[in-house]
Every structure is written in C-alpha cells, then in structure tokens.
Amino acid sequence: MSEKRTEISALGEFGLIDHLNEKIVIRHSSTLKGIGDDAAVIDSGEHVKVVTTDLLLEGVHFDLSYAPLTHVGFKAVAVNVSDVAAMNAIPKQITVSIALSNRFSVEAVDALYAGINAAAEHYSVDVIGGDTTASRSGLVISVTAIGEAKKEQIVYRSGAKVNDIICVTGDLGGALVGLQVLEREKQVFLSNPDMKPELEKYQIVTARQLRPEARMDIIHELRELEVIPTSMMDISDGLASELFHICKASNVGVTIYEDKLPIDKQTFDTAVELGLDPITCVLNGGEDYELLFTIDQKDFHKLEKHPDIHFIGHVSKEEDGKYLVTKSGTAAQLKAQGWKHF
Amino acid sequence: MSEKRTEISALGEFGLIDHLNEKIVIRHSSTLKGIGDDAAVIDSGEHVKVVTTDLLLEGVHFDLSYAPLTHVGFKAVAVNVSDVAAMNAIPKQITVSIALSNRFSVEAVDALYAGINAAAEHYSVDVIGGDTTASRSGLVISVTAIGEAKKEQIVYRSGAKVNDIICVTGDLGGALVGLQVLEREKQVFLSNPDMKPELEKYQIVTARQLRPEARMDIIHELRELEVIPTSMMDISDGLASELFHICKASNVGVTIYEDKLPIDKQTFDTAVELGLDPITCVLNGGEDYELLFTIDQKDFHKLEKHPDIHFIGHVSKEEDGKYLVTKSGTAAQLKAQGWKHF
C-alpha cells in the first residue's frame, strides 16, 4: 500500500488527543462541557452530572509483578473519583468493565473486585454496570464515574484569574518515587529471585503509587468552608503539566515558589537515594492525585490554617509567563513534561 | 503458592458475572437500576439518565484482518446506542476511550474516529470525553453511552406479563452468518494470499457483522405510535439467550413459533451453503442488535402493519416453560447458548 503513514509518536500523546478532538461536534445543549477538562458536564435539571472515564492496561498503567490486584481495583476507582473531585462534584455511580485472560483465576478476579468494592464503599459510589469479557493478553480495566453537583458549584480549569492564589493539597512526587522503588526492586528480584524486596522503609511512597487516595475529603471541607475554587484539576500528569493546562484554559500565567512546594520526608530522602532531584519529582511526577486549585484572595483566610492545603504561588497575566522561583531567588521558566506512554 | 485456584471457565461468563454482582452494594436512592438490564438507570429530576458501557478488544470482539477500522469505530458506538434503545431511551452523550500500540498510524486512528464520528452524527450523540492511551498489544475500545427518558418511559427486562405478544425487529442470524463467511474467506486468504476474497454475494450478511445498526428508528416509531413495550432487550447474545433473560427477570415463560422467526434470504441461503441450520443461526446467532420486546395485546393493532416488526410468539406462565413450536407443530424446549468468549 502506498498510503501515507504518520507515526503517533510524531504527534505525541497530547498532540494525538488534540488532533482527534478537532473533529468532535457537540449537538446537544445539555452537553455543558465536552472534552477538555477533568470530566464532562451534562445538564440535568437542577443538578448537573459530571462524567469521566479511564482505561487502564496491564503493562502500561500497572505491573502485576508488584501491584496487588486489590490495590489495582481500588486505584482504578480512585483515579476516576479524583477526576470527579477535580470538578468540585460528588461521585455517585461508576461502571466497571474488565477484560481478562484465562491466566486469571476466579480468586484473582475476586481480589480485583475486593479493591473495587472497597473503593466504592470508601467513596460512597454505586457500581451500576459494566462489561466482563475475555482478553487475549493482559488485564484491561475501564471505569466511568458519574458525579453530581449544582451547576454553580462546578469548577473548570478555565476560571483562574490574575492574583488568585495557587493551592495544592497533600504532598507531591511520592507516587513517582514509589514507582522507581518498585521498579528497582523488581529488577533486583528478576536478576536474583532469592533476594527479598526491601520495601518496609519505602511504605509511604510505594503506597502513593499503588493505592492513591482521591481527595474527596478536601472537596467536602471546601463546601463546609464555603470556598469555591476559581479553577481546579487533579494532579495525574505532574504539577507543572497541570499548571500549563490551567494557564492555557484560563489564559493566565503563574509564578510558583520552590520553597512552598510540599514534599514528604520519605519522598525527599528516597528521591535523593535514587539519584533523582526531589523538586523535579514534585514538578513532573505523575499519579499523586492531589488537587491543584486556585482561589480568590478573599477566600485565603478560610483556608490559611488548613494543615493539608499549601499555597505555592499566584496567578499572573498570561504575558508574564510561567515561572518557578527557586530557593536562591532565581525565576526559572516552568517546563511541562508530563508522562509519555507512547 | 498453595492458594486455591478456580478457573474462570468453571463458572463461565454469565456465572462469573453473577458471582461478581453478588457483592455489589447500592447506596444511593438515585440509582434506580444498577446491574442486570441493558443499561443502568439514574434518577435525575424530571428525566432519568440511562448508562451503559462496552469494552471491545481486538482479537476477541473484532478482527482487523477483515474489519475496516471505520466500521469498528461505528460498531463500538452502535452497540452502546443499541443498549440505550433497549431501555426505550434516547442516547445523548458518549465517552470513547482507546488504547493502541505504535503499530497503528495516525491515519489508522483517523479511520477509527471517522467511524466513531459518523455514528455520533447518525445517532445524534455528543462525544464528551474519553481516554487515549498506549497498548502493548492490540486495539482496545471502551465506550460508555448516556441516554435520557422520562421515568415512565423506561422499559426494563422485568415487565413482561402473561399473554403479552413477543416482537422482534428486522431479521436475525445475519451477523453470525456474516462472521462465518468472513472467517472462511480469511482462512482461504491465509492459505493462499493470491486468492481474492469473494464477498460481493455476501454483502448483506457481512454488513450485519461489520457495521450493525442500532434500532433507534423503532424507538422513535414506538413513541409516535404511543406504544410502550412491557419489556425490552437488544439482541446481542442471540434470541434464545435474550428470551431467557426476559423470562428470568419477568418470572414468565414463552412460546415462540419457528415459522414466525424473521430471516433474510441471503442469511438463509448462506447458512445452508455453510452447512449451518438457519433456525439455529436465528436463535443463537449474536450481534444482530435488533430489538426483542413484548407488548400488551391492546397495543397489537398499532404495530400490526409495521413492515419491520415481527410477532414471534407470546408470553406464558413461568411454569409453562420456554418452548419453540417447530414448523411441524412440535413443541421443543428452547435452549439458550449465547456466545462464549472464555
């Protein structure tokens, strides 16, 4: 065949997604928000529904040589709940589809579903449907989550305004560092199966990778404190990458401060041990599933004392660019790397 | 490890699904119907939302050696629209997730999306989200469809009543016969690549397999005629298997008549040519995506003259069993085989 062949790598993951999205046509006025945020938003009378979906493949998104199936199930739900949280909505229902080969036993499937059901209970969501089918190769999990909020509560990526304060929850970089530890121990084990993986001193970071938490606690607290962020995302691809998304959607710039970035001690120490720059892990490590949001300055006093919300910088004009102010006081241009699967 | 290992094949596909569903807990009153019908139903004010999802894997659900990617994309949407139709609802939004390896070019992905977008236009649904990711092996497509209806319009599998008339749309067995033709021509091609597949005389049946239509036309017509079926399903696993589902959900029996079963001439002739019993194809052939529904006798006159709705039998008491009356007048017990992927 003489047909043109363009490699996907020529566009990259985000390039491919943009390329495909260009052709999408929206026909229904009830589709308030289609592609382009953490979740889609559908009008539904007094409330709106938010819808988000994730497709997880063995060997790409998880490695069963170190990820217990129960954790894989929990995480598959949590990452979707996190996207609902990022819209400032409350998750209500999920569908779960799985494809698996006969390599998996009923007991293995039960372990997977134990995690799915534990997450459903933890986040109070109903498993309302799904599809169970055969796979010729690895395990495939597809979860769709549906959440609910009042229309005026929904927070998009596009609402950040100049002088807003940039907030992140929890600490960052742990999931990436945890992944590096797990990969290292896997290689050690593969080269010498008698070696037992030493994971005890890495419990925090490996848990961040294997069993992340969606920050629904923060969403409920923001409601109690009557704070509606001006923009919000969850941090799945890395802080820098997510800041770029908010800047693009909101037509703003950002300045963040290295000494304000939250990093856990075990994450820091392990990053150093692995020869990684801790700040790079914080900026570009994915899968932390913490929340990144911006608030109006008038709301600052309501969150000021919150032990798990960190104020890392402020929103600036678009033409002022995107900067990281280092501990030495130098302003360095932020770079978004994100995660590349292709 | 001395852990117990139960093979999935010991439970079978439906057994595994039942086993997993036993542990599902429903927490929200807005979840009107969870697992167990063509789609889930969520309360949403005046209207309800129906939600359905399908996971399709290359090598299991489609074979790219004869299925053009455009058709694969169209079909992935159509099968979900068909599930929404089977609830007597109107599809409004879909999410589409794909996983693909670098074996696929941008042009190939474009062909897939051309089919997805053509189906979105054809069925008037908005593509509102999704996930695009890498795969280590074949193409994976996960579609979730969301539809809408008034609560009183929703038709479950569970509403069939004794003496209701059993209806099917279109004709049956074509998709299975089409699959057999495509598989035969593939084997011919594999054993001699110089042979060109002879598919012209099989256009109807191969189209039934490669590019099925969801019967939204019937759903709209039923509304115009003010007929609300008492129960409804789409025929994805085969007529006999779907009748078993309705009997189980409605606590009824059925009697259907061989001479009333709709079969297209090309399907009949090709089945005979392939050495298959045409009636077996009609009863157990999957993927036709026609509608199976029951109506109250009072509604019969409204549909009597419809050229594409066939009246194949009636609902009986549960204790009367499930029977097929053959052309010779013998009543034979119906067997549900369905499709087995495991």
Summary of the model, kept short:
The structure is a homodimer of 342-residue chains. With 342 residues, chain A is of the alpha+beta class.
- Total strand count of chain A, please? 13
The CATH homologous superfamily of the largest domain in chain A: PurM-like C-terminal domain
**Secondary structure category of chain A:** alpha+beta
CATH class designation of the largest domain in chain A: Alpha Beta
Beta-strand percentage range of chain A = 25-35%
Please summarize the sheet with the most strands of chain A: 7 strands, mixed
Question: Radius of gyration of chain A from the CA trace?
Answer: 20 Å
Overall average pLDDT of chain A: 93
Q: CATH architecture of the largest domain in chain A, please? A: Alpha-Beta Complex
> Portion of residues in helices of chain A?
25-40%
InterPro entries (chains A, B): PurM-like_C_dom, PurM-like_C_sf, PurM-like_N, PurM-like_N_sf, ThiL-like
Protein name (chains A, B): Thiamine-monophosphate kinase
EC number (chains A, B): 2.7.4.16
Binding site for Mg(2+) 5 (chains A, B): 237
Describe this structure in words.
The structure is a homodimer of 342-residue chains. Chain A is 34% helix and 25% strand. By secondary structure, the first copy, chain A, is of the alpha+beta class. The longest helix of chain A has 18 residues, at 174-191. The radius of gyration of chain A is 20 Å and the shape is globular. Chain A starts with 7 loop residues before the first helix and ends in a 9-residue tail after the last strand. The model of chain A has no long low-confidence stretch (mean pLDDT 93). Chains A and B meet through helix 1, strand 2, strand 3, strand 4 and helix 3 of A and helix 1, strand 2, strand 3, strand 4 and helix 3 of B.
